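Listing S7. Sequence submitted for prediction.
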Amino acid sequence: MPRFSIVMPVYNAESFIEATLDSLLSQTFADIEVIAVDDASTDGSGTVLDRCAAKDSRLKVVHHRENTYTGQARKDGVLCSSGDYILFVDQDDALVSDACEKLASFTKDHPVDIIHFGTRGVISDDVDEGYQKELDSFLSPYVGELAGRDVLDGCFFDRKYSWNVWNKLYRADLCKKAHEYVDMTNVRYGEDFYAYFVMAFYANSYYGIDDEMYTYHYGSGQTGHSRVDMKSFRFICTASVVVDEIERFAHAQAASQERRLVDKVRSLLIWEPACMLKSNVAACDKSEALHVFFAAWGLNASLDVLRRLYEGEEALLAHELHAAAVSASEDGTSGRLEAKLSSLSICSEAEDGGRLGADSSALEKLLYEWFVEARKNNQLEARLELLAKSNGQLELRLKRVTAELEGTLQSTAWKVGRFMTWIPRRLKDLLSSFLLR
């Protein structure tokens, strides 16, 4: 049984995979196995792996018939490993030559569940310096020890260290227990977050050290680029699936403060696509990207993060949201409640009395859907009552609307739409908060 198992997912890496393998198989500490999972590559990656495995028996190659993405490839590698400890390496990165030797020595004195080590960055020309510094900080370990629940909270709540899986060493029993549970079937992006969350949940001990043992190539993958096309943005937004998976996990484990955990997970995962939406998506793609963003992350979370991200730039956000609502109407997808509600809740207001500047037909459909939803949940009277209390001038009209809604919603939807177009400025934020509940 080897001391260390090194798991590496591989996909279309024919041109550089040998260099990565060399950094692993030439480690100064030889008691290792390398498990390379060829995730149905369409180039010659599988052939290269088989050729290298014929030269070194420590290399084991797993071939997938279909592409399953990184998370599942890692999972399969973990479950067929035999080492005492497990490391992960990405196909375009490397381990420092004496990394395993140092870790073998360290684990004798510190038999903890997770060891987090430093990362040495190799920078490509297209990486922004600011992004590099931010990522350097993100990848830095928390130097010292954490125990019990602090392993999880230290990463996801206190932000003492990051959730990347590849700059850490794991006890094999912990790693396998976590990967037996995680379901990577539908996970395309955010697999590190998901896998590390479950491992940190089960872990009892963590130790962080400064030694740089992992070589990370900035910019060779998706990270670091200034422009994100729609295909990439859609892919990144699939990280929303991870929220659902972690919610199921937390519920199954009867985790304490389950809602707190899930809300935190969502707030962390949504931040990257939100930042890309604001800064990296081309202006011509912004409306489409907003539709994708709202569809993936939901109304409440999307508006919340955008409000925080655009603080001080509300006019810009209002313009982009309004453009998205208009484009939805023009392309026949005017039923997108999210875009219209976004336009309603943050739209710029006219100077003549502070009236909301949203399109009345959009408001009619928006409010019709909102009232239908409220009525189904027995919240209609309560919502209208609370809105009425906020402004005495509206009370009579609200009562009138309530009475009409007791009849048929369809016949009064246009009246509700007209009624909402003159809501004064001071009610805008209050109205948004109730619509978002």
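Caption to Listing S7: primary sequence and predicted structure tokens for the chain studied. The longest strand covers residues 205-218. The chain has three domains: 4-218, 227-313, 367-437.
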